[in-house]
Predict the structure of NAD-dependent succinate-semialdehyde dehydrogenase.
Amino acid sequence: MVMLKDPTLLRSDCLIDGKWITAPGGPAPGRTTPVTDPATGQIVGQVPDLGAAEAEAAIASAARALPAWSARTAKDRGAIMRRWFDLVIANADDLAALMTAEQGKPLAEAKGEVLYAASFIEWFAEEAKRIYGETIPAPTADKRLLVIKQPVGVCAAITPWNFPAAMITRKAAPALAAGCTMIVKPAEQTPLTALALAVLAERAGVPAGVLQVITGDARAIGGVLTGSDVVRKLSFTGSTEVGRILMAQSAPTIKKLSLELGGNAPFIVFDDADLDAAIEGALASKYRNAGQTCVCANRLYIQSGIHDAFAARLAETVRTMKLGRGTEPGVTVGPLIDEAAVQKVESHVADALAQGATLVTGGRQPPLGGNFYEPTILTGVTQKMKVAREETFGPVAPLFRFETEEEVIAMANDTEFGLAAYFYTENVRRVWRVAEALEYGMVGHNTGLISNEVAPFGGIKQSGLGREGSRHGIEEYLEIKYLCSAIG
Ligand code: ADP
């Protein structure tokens, strides 16, 4: 049971066409899917098992709502969104409680995510007013050339479970600000936070059809959303594997795409780094959300002169981390999302050990029940091991020893992914060399935390397409229209 100050935020129905529905086609109770707490396996809620027909209904509603929503002034849309932001802040404790119950992250981290999620609503409510066009000096005297920006239209979002609130607001807020309407299909593991956000949007005055949330059969709903020629854009955050499928499904309708896919972030510590800062950054980047973020450090490259000191200090701190239910005071690492996630982490650790890595700490499931895995450190890791090739998505820090800058850049870039990278050095010349050489969409220098609403988040290579947040984030929901006027 999740105890909420406002129990009406715990929904077991979906918002489609301005109505809260529980069953295909009507108000009668229908089939539901349970939502479970990954720390205990207990059921915390039920959401409707909807499918293709409801996705079609949502698209039709979004299309009906589009003309009026896009015709409002940006100031007007921004004011409604500002009310949504205020309501999210006012209900932050409840949203965090729901998130911890269905996702597992410690309550303080969940609260942090709610504030982070809210910051996108606030930012894009403001950015709505700054959708500027351009005038272009014409090549001939008898013409006047200008560029206007218009909303893309009906948009869809398919979101993951690791950030149940922020992955939604980072897409829905710029869409609404731009004048688009949006259908959200949240992850099956974490639909409750998504539905609570929809309650608050409705309370803020977001009209029927402008923001809808649909739960149920991911493949069926995804198939309708990607196949529709009314849906002009899909924004997806999740695995590269599913991203590829959705991209292929979107090809026949040449849908605009934003894709935030997998990462394999290198975290490089040079001999001349500030060791305290590097340890702090490694902890924040590696163990946040139990290692389940796409920008989590996946490979830690430590230069040989500082390697042993770094490994010893990291192990000392990691051993003090408290594993447990996110609701327990003092817990810093929660459970993994499900059994499959635990199995993946186990297989990566086993593969590393079989190939000669050394286990410094962790490396097993503690006797807590649920999907827990101990914060782990491995040393003597090489590029051939699974921990180097694939995203582990768990609380495992594999430490690689390296000698030269050239060598580490080559190893860091030796991956099909290109989302986030981090490096620590006090040498200003090296800062520029390394920052420019890393083939990543985002680079942190002397910090392990880079995400915020004012900066462009996104990857290159097979980590995706497009950017979220910042002034660039709203462009993803706008079309450029060029107007050429002959006045001669
Ligand atoms: P993860 O591996 O982190 O769970 P996924 O990429 O599998 O990430 O899932 C991210 C989102 O994509 C979820 O909302 C999930 O329901 C959805 N999804 C997964 N497979 C499909 C599919 N074939 N079509 C549409 N959506 C999908």
About this structure: The chain has two domains: 7-261+463-482, 266-445. The longest helix spans residues 107-127. The radius of gyration is 23 Å. The pocket of adenosine-5'-diphosphate is lined by residues 158-160, 185, 187-188, 218-219, 222, 238-239, 242, 245 (CB under 6 Å).
